[in-house]
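User: For my dataset I need records formatted as: sequence, then structure tokens, nothing else. Please produce one.
Assistant:
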Amino acid sequence: MLRTALLLTPLALLAACGSLLETTDSSGRHYATIKGTVTRSNGTPVANARIGVSCVGTSNEPFGLETESNASGAFETDLYGPSFFAPLTGPSYICRVLTPVTGVPQTEKSISVRVSPDFKTRPTTTVSLVVP
């Protein structure tokens, strides 16, 4: 039972943030881009996979968003932190990228996402998710 609770932790983080963030913003806050692919273990792409991104920084409250892979299994989303949420030293966020968004994740990865120190650019972090 404890194992199930641990597997659901990323989903709890997404739920804890209330509504998910929009993927566009014009305020210039902590910009970053996360892109990647979702494939099966045999290398075939997973189309239309729902991907969740849940991040933490200097605030104790997580924030997150959802995106979807295209027909080739590729996805890309802009990420920005809420105004109350500062990045960790670096500056960066620690994010979990997982699929699917609901239920027990088939796969997840923790990544360090570098964010723009001047809020004018969007550094890109790439992640590959492999599902059974």
